[in-house]
Structures are given as structure tokens and as C-alpha cells.
Amino acid sequence: MVNVSKVTMDYATELKGVITMPQIGWVLDSDERNAVQKQYQLQIATEPSFAETVFDSGEVESNQSQHVIAPVELQSLTRYYVRVKAALTSDSTSTWSDTASFVSGLCQNEWEAEFVSADSDADAENSKGTYVRKGFTLTGKVKEAYISCSALGLYELYLNAVIDLAKEKLGITVEVEQRVGGADGDNIVKTRLASGDMADICLYNSGSLLNALNPSEYFYDLTNESFVSTYDDTYKETVTVDGKVYGVPVASTQAGAILYYKPDYEELGLKVPTTWDEFLANCDALKAAGKTAMIGTFADSWTAQVPYLGDNYNIIAADPSFAKNFEAGTAKYATTPAGVESFQKMVDLNQYYNEDYLAATYDDGCDMLANGEGTHWIMLTQALGNIYSLYGEDVDKIGVFGVPGDDAANAGLTVWMPSSLYVNKNAENMDAVLAFMELYTSTEGLDAYAGVIKADGPYCIKGYELPDDAYEAVKTDMQAYFDEGKTTTALEFMTSVKGANCPAICQEAGSGQTTAEEAAAAYDEDCKKQAVQLGLNWE
Amino acid sequence: MNKKKIYTLWFLIPSTIIFSIFFLIPLVSSLFYSLTVWDFKSFTFVGLDNFKMFFSERSLSTSVIHTLIYAFLTCALKVILAFFIAIFLTSKIKTKNFLRSVVFFPNLVSTIAVGITFAALMHPTKGLFNLVLSTLGAGRIDFLGNTSLALFSVIFTDVWKGVGVATVIYVSGIQSIDKTYYEAASIDGANGWERLKNITIPLVRPAMNSVIILSLIGGLRSFDLIWAMTGGGPGFATDVVSSVVYKQYAAGFYGLSTAGNVIMFVLIAVIAYPLQRFLLKREES
């Protein structure tokens, strides 16, 4: 028995953009002793059927299985298929190997493109970081296409699914300008709004930051558009200011919740808990079975605050006006029972963490959860995307439930809402913009988006069913909370007061250095600094 | 006496301008801004509120205590350890030059790199230190996770890295001691300990003073090593004034962080200046 496995081209199993024929290598798998290759046959073709080959070595007597050179002149931008078969000195012969393939680059120097560059040298000099861009539209249905690109500096190349769809369905061409994130990007948006220089559509945060932007002055009121009626109510609140709806959700939601390793639950016959006590009972059971019940990744201190942030559903459920009073300075965590409880939960969890929870990082957490080295991890569901990229389909071993509270009948999920697209009040092409927004929120638009980027949470559109290849945790576990309407946004969407030391305070509570009361009081004190900076009148 | 001025005072102008722009003006303006809440564009005057907050909030006030522990302990350890290493390195040993290089090497590595490396070595389960400890049968020690130990683990690393410079200063001090003192003492029958006590220690005092002042000031404003190893954590267990200043600044509390800088300035001045006076006086007597 002999098999040819792992055909490589210049040591790579996948190769793009080569301009000379790569050297071919392969690995022999055999259960015989003293197996030595006697001969091989190598074929290269431009279609996967190998009906016609560009090169066929015939049966070559050789023990060479690396650095095999095939005298092939490559055609530009072509996919070549490679397969090998080999025979041993014992005369056992393999079948054809799995077909490997590579794509050639521009081999004959037929580079015809021009550099996309700034209008003048002065422009390039004046700008801090010049961003030049060229958009193009793909015509016709594409099965496979190759793009050759090169740049002086850095470049980014992307195909925008929804925008392409808009071109196809509505005949609208959408031009995208990219802005920087963070505080600088914030300033750009504010300045361009104030100076009346805003594009027709503007991407900006939802929630409390939108409030601060004074949307009624700049943005078109979408309240009466038909697509707004399909919005999830929780999302709708974050883009509603003074009773008017302004935004269109640009991506999926995500949640701050408990990710858990489902095989452990099956093994011990555990149920998804609906109250905090049930959850602790599950942790005890896991601990008794010799498992690590909780994953702690405190070396990345921001992860320590997710249990507190993700508990907002329970705080708001206990006191719906908490966020408003908190911003006004009348409600405090230390004096609100649900608020103290939120910190108590972190203290409770301390005994269940992995041994190295203070030294483990977010990346370690992804590994531990995917391999079942820990059962629960309180984290943002964006971790699903990281786990998917590392472990592929294993991501479906992971389930999600919201941080439980006291009331079994009211177990909910704390959700982070996506940023939103806002329509400029004075848009030049208002009809086109509205049609684009409608498409963006339609099933077709969402499918196109989800086809490119897998969702970390359900979309904010009622009745939209996630595609089949969505993560199991998103499609079933998280979607259920949305269907029942049991979601609340994180506190940062309700008020801009957030203590800067939140990670360190949560780290203290979670590592058992402080009691819940002390942590809550420390957090109130910390928030006061932010309130002073924001010019709020506390006390 | 008819003492004529040789140079006109105008020659002071260039250096005065540079000193004012880069030192005096920032100093005065930071004193002012520490009394305000400001965001680069506008400010509100709040009196001493920032300072009150700094000393009343536990997470901030503990940083002052940590700074003092850190500075005095690293200073003491460096002064003592480096002295004995220097004695050893100036004695008659083979491979003297090699050993001197070895002692100095840690100082050539970037502090951040040292911090990251030691944080990895001190990892509670995967770190080399704990692997060795558990092989020897001793229990594991959570060097950076245990809140009562974390600060001392960082201090240990700081001493490991900084002892080289102190040693070099000592070595130069010891080598400049005239050999004849030792000869005379030997003829009078003094043993090794007596020579050390009565000749080396008194005569190496100027070098020792430099080491004390340098390592104390270095310890008071230490930031990079702590930031690389613990980021001030777990919780606030290893926060020092400079890391607090950095964190407040990053959070956008410019007034508060400026107040922290003023506190650090005062702290260093109040400790270093009298100490310098005291040491110099002792040296002269």
C-alpha cells in the first residue's frame, strides 16, 4: 500500500502569483517497511480533469520526491492543477494524489495598470497619511477571478458585497470613503457635519454617542420608512432620539454572555441555567467532576469587566430607569441592590477559575474554550469569530447563554448594537439613498453581507433568519433571546459615563481582593471622574 | 579689589531661552493645569479638587505608598548587592573582565523586553521558575498574580536589571582607592574584614552616594518595567504614581494626571534634595 499525500509547490500547499514554475514536492505514505520510491509520474494541466495536460513526465525512474522541476512556461493569470503518482521498489503503485493547484501571476511583464495616486505631489506631501482609492464594478457573474495588485506603501483590497448587490439590483453605484476610527474619526464626522460637507450616508456609533451628535439637525428622519418597522425594538431604541428613528444597522449585533463548552454539559447532564444560583450549582458540579468551571483571562484586563458589562440586562430588569438616574448622578451602584449583585457575581466566580487566570490572555481563552479545557467563559461573542478562524467547525461545540439573574422567568441577554448608517438631511440623491437603505435591511442584502462576514450575533431585523452556515450559538441560542424580546443593550449605549478604571476594579473583585460592596463603591468613585470631565453636575 | 567681569551676562540668553521653553514654562503651566479640569481646548478651575481626589481615592493613594516601597527597596537592595558584587569583581579572580560584562549585560536589554521575559518566566503554570520549583517538589508560587507578592516580584526584576550600573560605579570607586592604604594596613596586621571596614567602605562613600541618589530617583519614577510586567495589576496591587498618571491621561482626565505629575515632582524633590544634602555633608566630614 502506498499513497501520495500533500503535494507541495515551492513548499506551499497553496500558491498564488508565481511567475516561474514552482518546484514540486510530495510526501509518500506507506504501511510497508523499508519503503523506497522507485518511480513517479507528474502531471500538470490547466483544467482539473487532466484531459489535456501541459506537462506529463511519464513514468520516471527516480527516488526524487522534492524539488522536482517541470519545464513549463507559465501563462499569466492561470490556475494550474498538479497531481502525482508513485511506485515503490516493492512494486506497489499508488493512485493519483489529490489534485493541488496554484495560480500564476503576470509572467510576461504585461503589467498595464497605472498607479492610483494623489492628484499632485503637493497633495501627497500635504497629507499626513494619504489615502488613495479606486473603485470598480465587476460585470457579469464571476466564478473565479484574479486580481494582481501592487503598491508603493500599504494597500487594502476588498470587494463589497452589499454595494455590488446595489449596483446589480438598483443600478446604484455607491462610493465609499474610509475614515479613521477612534477620537480622530469622531472629530472628522463632527467637523464635516458642522460644515455641511457630509456625504449622503454617514457611518457612526449607535446609542449615547449618537445623542451627543444632535441628529435632528443633520440626519434625515427615517421613522416613516417601511423598513424601520422590521427593526428589533432594542436596536430601534439606540438610534431613536426624541421619538425619531435615524439609523440603519450596518452589521450584526454581538452579546456579552457566557460561552460554554457543550460537550461538558452533555457529559454531566447539566441544563442551561436560568438563575445565578443554578449557574453556581453547575459550576460546583463541574468542579466536583475535576473540570475547570470558569475560564479567566485577566492578563488582558479588559476581559475582566465583561461579567459586569454583560450583567446589565439584570440591572435594567430590576430598575428600568437606572441608566438615566446613573447619568444624572442620583443612582449609584453601591446603593442599588442589583448593582452590588453585579459585582458580587464576579466575587462568586473567583473559586472556579483556571489556575493561571491572572496570567492567561484573551487568545489563551479562545484556545481553552475550543479545546474544552474550561467550560464557561464570560466574553463578547466576537470570540466565536476568533475560535472559528482557529478551529473551524469546532466552533459549533460552543453554546451561549446570557448572564443569569434572580428571576428564572426573565433570563435575558445583554447586547452590543452595531454602528449605524445615517442619511444626510441634505443628501443629493435622496431616492437612491433610501432605496439603498431598504436593500441593506432586506433579506437579500443581509444574505449578501452574511455571505462575506459571519455574524457574531443575530441581525437587528425581525424575522430575518440567519443563513445555515451561521454559528450554531448565534443561530439557535442567541436568536432565541431576540425572538422573545429578552435583550437589553450594554450600559455604554445608554449613558456615556463609564469609569476608566473599570477593568482594574473588576480584576480586583474577580481575584478576591475586594468585596462586592467595596468594588461597587470604588466604581462609583471612578465614574465620578468621568462625570466631572464630561461636565455633568454630580452632587 | 577691582574684579572686572570678563563676560557680559548676554551670553546667558541662549541657554536661558532653552531652559525656559522646555523646563520653566511647562513646569509652571503644569502647576496651573493641575488645578483645573481641562481637555486641551478649554478648562475649568477646580482648586485643589484633583489633589483631594488623588489622596482620597484608594486606587490612587495606594500608588503613592507603592512608589515609596518600590523606590526604597530597589535602592537598598542595589546599594548592598552591588557593593558586594563590586568587592568580588575587584578581587584577584580569573575571568574578571568576562564576569564584569556578565553583571552589566542585563542593563543593555530594553526594559520592556526584560519585563515581558520575566512576566513569562513568572507565569504561574507555564513559567520556568515554577517549573523548576515544582520539579524540586516545592509548591507553585504565583509571582505576579498574588497581590501581596506581585510588587516584590517586580522589585526583584528591577534589581536584577539595575544592579549592573550600580556595580560599575562601585568598581570605579574601589579601583580609585590608593593601594598603599591596603599595604600599610596589612603591615600593621589588619585582616580582610578590618581592611574592608576601615579602608574600603569609608573611601568608597562618594561612589555609594551616587548609587543611592541615582537608584532612588530611578525607583521613584519607575514606570516601564511595571507597565510591561503587570500593567499596575492585578487590580491596583502594583500601581505606582507614574502608571496612575499614565492611566488617567489615557482616560482623558488631563487635569487629574497633571496633578499626579506634580505630586511625583514634589515627592522626588522632597526626598532627593535633603538626602543629597545629608550625604554630601557626611562625605565632607
Write the element-wise H/E pattern of chain B from the N-terminal end onward.
Answer: HEEHHHHHHHHHHHH
β-strand number of chain B: 2
The CATH superfamily name of chain B is: MetI-like
Largest interface, per-chain counts? A-B, 24 and 34 residues
Task: Describe the fold and architecture.
The complex is a heterodimer of chains A (539) and B (285). Chain A is of the alpha+beta class and 539 residues long. Among the domains of chain A are: 103 residues, Immunoglobulin-like (Sandwich), CATH 2.60.40; 209 residues, Periplasmic binding protein-like II (D-Maltodextrin-Binding Protein, domain 2, 3-Layer(aba) Sandwich). In chain A, the strands form 5 sheets. In chain A, strands 2, 4, 5, 6, 7 and 8 form a 6-stranded mixed sheet that branches. In chain A, strands 13, 14, 15, 16 and 18 form a 5-stranded mixed sheet that branches. In chain A, helix 12 crosses helix 19 and helix 18 runs antiparallel to helix 19. Chain A starts with a strand and ends in a 5-residue tail after the last helix. Chain B is mainly α. Chain B has a single domain, classed as MetI-like fold, CATH 1.10.3720.10. Helix content of chain B is 71%, strand content 2%. Chain B has a two-stranded antiparallel ribbon. In chain B, strand 1 and strand 2 form a beta hairpin. The radius of gyration of chain B is 24 Å and the shape is flat. The model of chain B has no long low-confidence stretch (mean pLDDT 87). The chains are: A alpha+beta (539), B mainly alpha (285). Chains A and B meet through helix 18 and helix 19 of A and helix 12 of B.
Outline of the structure:
The complex is a heterodimer of chains A (539) and B (285). Chain A has helices spanning 121-126, 161-170, 182-194, 208-211, 215-218, 233-238, 262-268, 276-288, 306-309, 312-318, 322-328, 337-349, 362-370, 382-391, 430-441, 443-452, 472-484, 502-510, 516-534, and strands at 2-9, 15-18, 24-30, 37-45, 53-56, 60-61, 79-88, 100-104, 201-204, 240-241, 244-245, 247-249, 254-261, 376-380, 398-401, 413-416, 420-423, 487-489.
